Inverse folding.
């Protein structure tokens, strides 16, 4: 138990340190480079489409980036990871993802020695004791509400959004 | 029960024209048969709607199969935390009273799963790549949306023989497994984790997920942030293979969230992401 926790912590620390620092990204549209992560912050520069930048951090919906020795903030969703030059016509590593996601029959997959191997999903061995243990982990509505309050999370209303029209 | 009624209707309509059988009545016979088929189809369709207790029963069996493939993470604090976040999110939805339960799987694979009736799973491998509670909330809300819209249940229904689903739906919930129909359907549902849902179901879960996170008071950019992190990982890593195989390309998912959120979600700037609370739990403090 303690060991798993420690391993998780170690893994997390690793992820925090490395996941995005120094990642190369490019802008998918003309984008304002802001001094701070707010829409009304001072604009340092206006980046064109396909500008190559380096991501150095994130806060909320903003990425902190470095571009031509200037550090500032841009909206996260105006960036895609990777190099624009390699991505002309939406190729680059997107192609790689597509290869990975068009398996279909499953015959193209190589099943390595992993816990969640596909083989175990095709020939399942039920574990009802673990389901019982999972039941016991569930929390009540009241517990969840207290948890939200402790985190100062305020619930609000918002309708689901329709699918964007196809381009 | 309902299934029996369907058979009675079918038999009685078949019996009726037979008693008045002559060549002059051929058209009537055809009409009667067509009508009988129509009535039968309607009843069949109605019986195919799986009652909620049966949905939960099926979800439990699929969960059991998944837990046979990957064990629960033995860390009570992390499991409790994930349940707190998940239950709070589920309270903001149209199905707040399902028996929602969440679990972290002790597995290095990067993935998350939903099973009918409110069973939600996230792997340790995915949790390790997250940086805040808002990111966890974004992923859990995506999975919750699959349950809300019955994506897996409908996919199982589509693939299964009609009689199998009809019979299952009309049976009483059994305390212990061992039910042949249930096992067959649950195994089909488990295979779905290797095959994946329709792309549109995934996109819909992304769209709903960011709204549910926003309703719950979180920074709603948690889900796109996780997708961006996944983009930064080595796509050839085998730990990502199953997730990539069963989901649309990350760039496509981010583009659709971009179209959806840009402009509409600006007012949520500065919402809490609770990165500190997340780090405290993950670091065992």
């Amino acid at each position: 138990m303690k060991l798993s926790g420690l391993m998780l912590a170690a893994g997390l620390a690793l992820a925090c340190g490395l996941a995005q620092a120094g990642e190369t990204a490019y802008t998918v549209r003309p984008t304002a480079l802001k001094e701070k992560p707010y829409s009304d912050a001072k604009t340092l520069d206006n980046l064109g489409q396909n500008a190559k930048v380096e991501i150095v951090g994130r806060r909320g919906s903003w990425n902190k980036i470095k571009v031509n020795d200037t550090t500032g903030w841009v909206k996260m969703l105006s960036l895609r990871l990777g190099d624009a030059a390699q991505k002309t016509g939406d190729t680059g590593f997107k192609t790689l993802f597509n290869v990975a996601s068009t398996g279909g029959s499953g015959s193209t997959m190589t099943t390595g020695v992993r816990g969640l191997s596909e083989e175990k999903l095709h020939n399942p061995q039920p574990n009802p004791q673990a389901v019982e243990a999972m039941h016991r982990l569930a929390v009540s509505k009241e517990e969840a509400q207290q948890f939200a309050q402790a985190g100062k999370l305020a619930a609000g209303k918002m309708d689901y959004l329709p699918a964007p029209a196809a381009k | 029960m309902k299934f029996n009624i369907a058979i009675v209707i079918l038999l009685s309509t078949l019996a009726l024209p037979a008693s008045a059988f002559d060549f002059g009545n051929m058209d009537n016979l055809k009409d009667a048969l067509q009508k009988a088929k129509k009535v039968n189809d309607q009843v069949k369709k109605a019986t195919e709607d799986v009652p909620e207790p049966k949905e939960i029963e099926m979800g439990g069996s699929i969960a059991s199969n998944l837990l046979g493939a990957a064990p629960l993470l033995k860390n009570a604090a992390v499991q409790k935390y994930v349940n707190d976040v998940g239950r709070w999110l589920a309270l903001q939805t149209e199905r707040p009273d399902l028996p929602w339960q969440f679990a972290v799987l002790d597995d290095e694979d990067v993935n998350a799963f939903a099973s009918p009736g409110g069973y939600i799973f996230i792997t340790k491998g995915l949790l390790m790549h997250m940086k805040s509670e808002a990111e966890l909330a974004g992923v859990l809300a995506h999975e919750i949306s699959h349950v809300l819209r019955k994506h897996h249940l409908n996919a199982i229904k589509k693939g299964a023989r009609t009689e199998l689903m009809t019979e299952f739906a009309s049976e009483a919930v059994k305390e212990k497994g061992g039910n042949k129909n249930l096992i067959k359907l649950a195994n089909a549902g488990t295979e779905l984790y290797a095959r994946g849902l329709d792309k549109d179901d995934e996109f819909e879960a992304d769209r709903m997920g960011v709204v549910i996170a926003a309703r719950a008071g979180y920074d709603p950019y948690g889900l796109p942030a996780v997708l961006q992190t996944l983009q930064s990982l080595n796509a050839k890593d085998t730990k990502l293979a199953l997730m990539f195989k069963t989901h649309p390309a990350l760039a496509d998912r981010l583009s659709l969230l971009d179209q959806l959120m840009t402009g509409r979600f600006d007012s949520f700037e500065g919402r809490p992401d609770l990165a500190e609370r997340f780090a405290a739990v993950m670091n065992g403090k």
